[in-house]
From TrEMBL:
Membrane topology summary: Multi-pass membrane protein
Listed PANTHER family: TRANSMEMBRANE PROTEIN 163
Entry keyword set: Cytoplasmic vesicle, Endosome, Membrane, Synapse, Transmembrane, Transmembrane helix, Zinc
Name of the molecule in the record: Cation transporter
Domain Cation efflux protein transmembrane: 83-195
GO cellular component, as recorded: cytoplasmic vesicle; membrane
GO molecular function: monoatomic cation transmembrane transporter activity
Subcellular localization(s) per the UniProt record: Cytoplasmic vesicle, Secretory vesicle, Synaptic vesicle membrane; Early endosome membrane
Length: 205
């Protein structure tokens, strides 16, 4: 761990706040865009991605709360809340993908959905990289972990984008729910790591 002085630490904390507020603002706007696009296209994938945005909003709120205070207890609670967000995302992806495949739901084409998910993927990966660097510099496991939530948000945006694009170009309506199962595994792995004894010891130490 790099040793930072108080002035540098405060600068890093401010950067962490800025990254989380940017994530929060983007996802709030995303809920509006995705709701309109989902209703217009009758797309389960877009509606589900809106739910993912809600989870990301919750995770960002947890980090903002954690950065506002100090102490290992606050970090431990923050990590557990992030873990719960991962678990909720995994359950949502599993249920959504299974239902869509089972009922054979065929959404309409959505140009606005394709544009939004493409831009969102780029934005989320950039924010995740910033959170990772800042969290490691602060030795803050909550910020680092929430950065991984943002990575999943970016990967999910790419999966939804791929599904929407394949549906529009080739009529492959099943591509998006199939990709969702890969993300279920990734999110479940993060939950296991967060709640493992080793991770808890790291947060406490």
């Amino acid at each position: 761990m790099a040793v930072v002085d108080e002035q540098e630490r405060q600068s890093l904390v401010r950067r962490g706040f800025a990254l989380e507020w940017a994530t929060l603002g983007w996802n709030v706007a995303g809920i509006v865009v995705l709701t309109v696009s989902a209703i217009t296209a009758r797309s389960v994938a877009l509606a589900g991605f809106g739910l993912d945005s809600l989870i990301e909003i919750g995770a960002s709120t947890v980090v903002i709360w954690e950065l506002s205070g100090t102490g290992t207890d606050r970090q431990r609670r923050g990590l557990r809340l992030i873990g719960c967000a991962f678990a909720a995302l995994a359950v949502y992806l599993l249920v959504q993908s299974t239902v869509v495949l089972a009922v054979g739901h065929h959404p309409r084409h959505s140009v606005s959905g394709i544009i939004w998910t493409a831009v969102t993927a780029a934005v989320m990966f950039a924010l995740a990289a910033g959170k990772g660097r800042t969290g490691r510099a602060l030795d803050n496991p909550v910020l680092v972990t929430e950065g991984r939530v943002t990575v999943i948000d970016g990967i999910l945006a790419m999966a939804v984008l791929l599904g929407l694009s394949l549906n529009a170009v080739a009529g492959w309506w099943w591509a998006d729910p199939a990709a969702g199962y890969v993300l279920v595994y990734y999110a479940a792995r993060e939950v296991r790591e967060i709640f493992s004894p080793h991770e808890g010891a790291t947060a406490a130490g």
